[in-house]
Amino acid sequence: MFKSGNASYHVPASDTSKGCYKKKDAIWVIVDRLTKSAHFIPVRTNFSLDKLVELYIGEIVRLHVVLISIISNKDLRFTSRFWKKLQEVLGTKLNFSTAFHQQTDGQSERVIQVLEYMLRCCVVEFQGSWEKFLPLVEFSYNNSYQSSLKMMPYEALYRCKCRTPLYWTELRKSQIHRVDLVKKTEDKVKVIRDCLKASSDR
């Protein structure tokens, strides 16, 4: 279970929708320090703190309860009195990473590097719609072997191995209602997995 996490922003270099009102132009990366599992939440860089709090409660608190501590970058939204007060009320210890103490948030930086590489690698496959496939990227990352854990983040988090969409073809076709959707998902997961492997081999 997420006990403590790192929260950082990442702006995808491949995104062409920067400044567009409806499209997301950044990814909020939240990593559990214990299990190394991560959430990649598509956001806009101009999201208000209220919107980020709504996402935080909907994506993190809803799934993992209130965190014990957070290490965050020094984005103005995370250093604001409101965010600090919210974390204080929730009982979460709030720390900030600094340029001279990268070890405080090196884990998030590494995850962001892997995420950047995966997105760059998949940019042609995603045809500009990275936001649509971000859940598959997150799933593939969390379901990949981590040498520091000697297991997959999902395995550490859920205490069991998770099946991937790559095993959907084991079902008989009569059991699958949208064969085309399953095939597309399998293909995307294979591409993402290859990119993740290439990233870890670097």
Overview of this protein structure:
The protein is of the alpha/beta class. It has a single domain (4-201), classed as Nucleotidyltransferase, domain 5 (2-Layer Sandwich), CATH 3.30.420. Helix content is 46%, strand content 14%. The chain contains 7 helices and 5 strands, in the order E-E-E-H-E-H-H-E-H-H-H-H. It has helices at 49-64, 76-79, 81-90, 106-126, 130-142, 153-158, 179-201, and strands spanning 4-10, 26-32, 38-43, 69-72, 93-96. Strands 3-2-1-4-5 form a 5-stranded mixed beta sheet, sandwiched between helices. A hairpin with a 5-residue loop joins strand 2 and strand 3. Helix 4 crosses helix 5.
Structural class computed from helices and strand pairing: alpha/beta
Q: Average pLDDT value?
A: 76
The number of helical elements comes to 7
Calculate the terminal CA-CA distance, rounded to whole Å.
30 Å
Kindly estimate the percentage of residues that lie in beta strands according to DSSP: 5-15%
Q: What is the CATH T-level topology?
A: Nucleotidyltransferase, domain 5
- Can you give the helix content as a percent range? 40-55%
Any guess at the CATH architecture? 2-Layer Sandwich
How would the blueprint of this fold be written?
Elements lengths: L3 E7 L15 E7 L5 E6 L5 H16 L4 E4 L3 H4 L1 H10 L2 E4 L9 H21 L3 H13 L10 H6 L20 H23 L1
Parallel strand pairs: 1-4, 4-5
Antiparallel strand pairs: 1-2, 2-3
